[in-house]
Amino acid sequence: MTGVTLKCVDKDFGSTKIIDNVSMDIAQGEFAVFVGPSGCGKSTLLRMIAGLEETSAGAIEIEGRDVTQTEPAQRGVAMVFQSYALYPHLTVFENMAFSLRLARAPKQQITKQVNEAARILKIEEQLDKKPSKLSGGQRQRVAIGRAIVRQPKVFLFDEPLSNLDAELRVQMRLELSLLHKQLGSTMIYVTHDQVEAMTLADKIFVLRGGVVQQSGTPLALYDDPANQFVAGFIGSPAMNFLSATVSAVTTAGVVASIEGSDGQSLEAQLLDTTLEAGQKVTLGIRPEHMHICESGLSTTVEMTENLGGVAYLHARLMGGQKIVIERRGERQSHQDESISVWADPKHVLVFAQDGQRLR
Amino acid sequence: MLLVITLTAAAIWIFPLYWAFVTSIRDESHVVSSDAGLLPDMLNLTAYSDALFNSNLLTWYVNSIGTSIIITVTVLITGMMCAYALSQMRFPGRRALYAVVLASFMIPTQALVVTQFVLMNDLGLVNTWAGIILPQLIVPVVIIVYKQFFDAVPKEMREAVLLDGGGEYTLLFKVYLPLNWGITTALAIITFIMAWNQFFWPFLVTTSENMMTIPVGITQVRDTFGVNYARVMAVALLGAAPVAIAYLIFQKKVTEAVMISSGVKG
């Protein structure tokens, strides 16, 4: 059954199109993540689902019901805001009970639902405190608790972890994941942090300029990006992009010489290509797929970031193009060393000049 | 040195109050005599008993308290609701309406007195509480201050309430107002003091002693032989006492209110 469906949704602010003909299906119980750079429209899209922004065109359905013109409170959604938006003059209990009290729910039911949510989030001890007495992590739990109490069909999270410090963010990320498993509800999560997207999502929607660039499971997007934007956005450190010119077309793919590298080239596997020799392309190789070898592309290591388990060698090719090479268990710095690198053709992605992936 | 200057300034400021008190406990014949010294030389409470039992002081108290409370409550409720609409709701003419509120702030009340008096007279409200109260309900500064504070409430708070199923009244009375209790208290105190001390308008609109407020009533304290200074001072001190006591209790809030309404603090 579908949880949330968007059909050709648009959002205009005056003459500016913020969301452009977006359609998507999010299954019931799925954890969907909208990811993209600042200004890509991901928060606007979430707010449109919540009913906080009007939809200029198209339709939004929640569990099969068209809610495009429905008031926010009637849509069966609950939202967790980046700033938590807790009512500072109310206690944690009152914050969590707010919606039920407005709905004039019986006192017994309110107490039961709030206590249950507090138990799930382990904040039973904080129920009598005001939000100002809580830490950032506890406030975030209360905000989630306030959403749980409403028993919504869909949970909406708008960059909920961005105000937390790095350690707490990792912890809360895991807890959110567990909470999703425990509740089994449909969740839509907005973030600009692709690590959060990769770790939390069942399905990622990558947005840019109000348009969904690609959607799919985190690994599908990582391994098989539809275009150069998605390839560059998903993965940390980002994929290496090398400008190249097709020098030969073979039955297995193409050979492309790297710009400014004195004829040095890389092979890429392509199933079906209309490319011809002399055409400009961009090669994409993830840092973990670049290997040091005896003969290959000549590079000079400019800097090494060694994190212990993994090291990132920042190097420059002959023509000046930069690449990052990932090395597991590396103990040498390779600083200022000239090394040769190579990539397996099956891991070399080819992008046309308009950024579209050639397969 | 600074201490000396401060103490001198304080002494200069307090002298009229001290003199009023000394005068009020003197015998009327002694008040205007040439040998009256600076120090209190007697404790004659006749002026106070006269003020309390032989004048309409208690009626004036009731009028002052009644009109001031009604003015304070009405000004706060209407000002708050107007400010909320201007700050949080989107409707055509919102900016123009706010400009009108700002413009009304720039018109001196004295300029409207004649028109207001004619209007009250036409409505038959001269010598009534309504006549005293109605023109004093226009306090644009309350709207401006409230709007400033409502503007500062994060947008997410409003959205959270909308998602929780609340409407505009829930937003105003369960979120925006409780979040701004501090400024509400401050505005209430300052509006009450202003209403209590208002002289010019109540002086014009009331001619019957039974409808006068304390500041106006003071002008009526005279006997057959003219002004009785001791009694006038006693009435003035008794009239100022409630506000002075309220000020002492809420000193911090009053200072805050004056700073907020004058734009020193926002």
> Order of strands across the biggest sheet of chain B?
1-2
Count of spatially separate domains of chain B: 1
- Counting structural domains of chain A, the number is 2
Largest sheet of chain B: 2 strands, antiparallel
* Count, helices of chain A: 8
CATH topology of the largest domain in chain A: Rossmann fold
Architecture (CATH level 2) name of chain B: Orthogonal Bundle
CA distance, first residue to last residue of chain A: 33 Å
Order of helices and strands of chain A: EEEHEEEHHHEHEHEEHHEEEEEEEEEEE
Distance between the termini of chain B: 34 Å
Protein name (chain A): Sugar ABC transporter ATP-binding protein
InterPro entries (chain A): AAA+_ATPase, ABC_transporter-like_ATP-bd, ABC_transporter-like_CS, ABC_transpr_MalK-like, ABC_transpr_MalK/UgpC-like, Mo/tungstate-bd_C_term_dom, NA-bd_OB-fold, OB_MalK-like
Keywords (chain A): ATP-binding, Cell inner membrane, Cell membrane, Membrane, Nucleotide-binding, Sugar transport, Transport
Pfam families (chain A): ABC_tran, OB_MalK
Structure description:
- With 359 residues, chain A is α+β, with helices and mostly antiparallel strands.
- Helix content of chain A is 24%, strand content 36%.
- Chain A has helices spanning 42-50, 92-102, 107-121, 136-149, 166-183, 194-200, 218-223, 228-233, and strands spanning 2-13, 16-27, 31-35, 57-62, 65-66, 77-80, 154-158, 186-191, 203-208, 211-216, 240-249, 253-258, 265-269, 280-285, 290-293, 297-306, 310-317, 322-328, 338-343, 349-351, 357-358.
- Chain A has a six-stranded mixed beta sheet with strand order 6-7-8-3-9-10, with helices on both faces. A six-stranded antiparallel beta sheet of chain A has the order 13-12-11-14-20-21. Chain A has a five-stranded antiparallel beta sheet with strand order 15-19-16-17-18, with no helix packed on it.
- In chain A, helix 2 (92-102) packs across helix 3, helix 2 (92-102) packs parallel to helix 4 (136-149) and helix 3 (107-121) packs across helix 4.
- Chain B is an all-alpha fold.
- In chain B, strand 1 and strand 2 (226-227) form a beta hairpin.
- In chain B, helix 5 (94-105) crosses helix 8 (140-151).
- Chain B starts with a helix and ends in a 5-residue tail after the last helix.
- The chains are: A alpha+beta (359), B mainly alpha (266).
